[in-house]
Amino acid sequence: MLGPVLLAASRSDAIRRIVSAAPVTRPVVDRFVAGEVLDESMAAVRSLNQRGMEVTLDHLGEDITDPAEALRTRDAYLALAEALRTEGLGVRAEMSVKLSAFGQALPGGHDLALANVTPVVEAAAEAGTTVTLDMEDHTTVDSTLAILAELRKRFPQTGAVLQSYLFRTEDDCHALAGEGSRVRLVKGAYKEPASVAFQDKREVDLAYVRCLKILMAGKGYPMIGSHDPRMVAIAQELGRRYGRTLDAYEFQMLYGIREAEQQRLVADGHRMRVYIPYGTDWYGYFMRRLAERPANLAFFLRSLATRG
């Protein structure tokens, strides 16, 4: 029952201040966040690349309330794209963006987010890489998919994330399973009402498998965003069933989670992409990681007890 509480806490300014001020927090955050500045994230990219893994980078921030913040997000990603271009890392490193950080929730937010993210997608292409649009709560799905459709007119390699716990996602998978599409399938990490999303873990898992079958049977490029050993095994079996070579899909896992499994998949010949978050606005991301898995919360609480 702690999951919903932690998800609610992820948007609480009061709890943000308490958690951020706790001396133990920073060392634990460092497990999940690659650093606060670009240089630290690039060091993580190089380290993971050397171990045979690809990456996607997320400059942390979401739910911004000021158009100036959206411009700062745009500029942070432009700097990231330039760093990837300069270091020649675009082949093995891409970028993930949350459109709420580009102004999606502001008045006129759909057009504002599209205007702000477009130069980032352009810069990514110049760096030899691409952008995936992260999915946020259910109220943003239509806008996010419409922005995806617009961006793919010029940059068809632009990817999107779909969340299996939403009732609508099977239909969205059918719509995005075509030639050239790139879809990261995840279970979902936002607190959603029962009117739009499965609430039972088993139902979410079953929906994940149904969605994965659609994507694997399609002509696009599935990206399996899961740490669940059952989903990893099912994805491998579906890859074989639908005649996919090991470079025709990939696994994606979060920085700092199940690192041995990440290395095992690489050793078995799979494409493994690590989601690397960085930046100062780490609180919401951190709380959702605690909410997703009891092991993450236990890790945090053990650290509190040890350092208390």
Short description:
The chain has helices spanning 2-9, 13-21, 25-32, 38-50, 67-87, 109-126, 141-152, 169-175, 201-217, 229-241, 259-267, 283-292, 294-307; strands at residues 54-59, 93-97, 131-133, 159-163, 182-186, 221-225, 250-254, 272-278. By secondary structure, the chain is an alpha/beta fold.
Topology:
Layout: H1 2-9, H2 13-21, H3 25-32, H4 38-50, E1 54-59, H5 67-87, E2 93-97, H6 109-126, E3 131-133, H7 141-152, E4 159-163, H8 169-175, E5 182-186, H9 201-217, E6 221-225, H10 229-241, E7 250-254, H11 259-267, E8 272-278, H12 283-292, H13 294-307
Parallel strand pairs: 1-2, 1-8, 2-3, 3-4, 4-5, 5-6, 6-7, 7-8
Describe this structure in words.
It is a single chain. By secondary structure, the protein is α/β, with parallel strands linked by helices. It has 13 helices and eight strands. It has helices spanning 2-9, 13-21, 25-32, 38-50, 67-87, 109-126, 141-152, 169-175, 201-217, 229-241, 259-267, 283-292, 294-307, and strands at 54-59, 93-97, 131-133, 159-163, 182-186, 221-225, 250-254, 272-278. It has an eight-stranded parallel β-barrel, surrounded by eight helices. Strand 3 (131-133), helix 7 and strand 4 form a beta-alpha-beta unit. Helix 9 (201-217) runs parallel beside helix 10.
Main attributes of the structure:
globular; single chain; alpha/beta; 308 residues; 13 helices
Rough outline:
globular
Bin the helical content: 40-55%
Number of strands: 8
Strand content: 5-15%
What series of H and E elements makes up the topology? HHHHEHEHEHEHEHEHEHEHH
Order of strands in the sheet with the most strands? Answer: 1-2-3-4-5-6-7-8
- Determine the number of helices (DSSP H or I, runs of at least 4 residues): 13
Task: Report Rg.
Answer: 18 Å
| Average pLDDT metric | 89
Low-confidence stretches: none
**End-to-end CA span:** 25 Å
Largest sheet: 8 strands, parallel, barrel
Helix/strand/pairing category: alpha/beta
Give the oligomeric state.
Answer: single chain
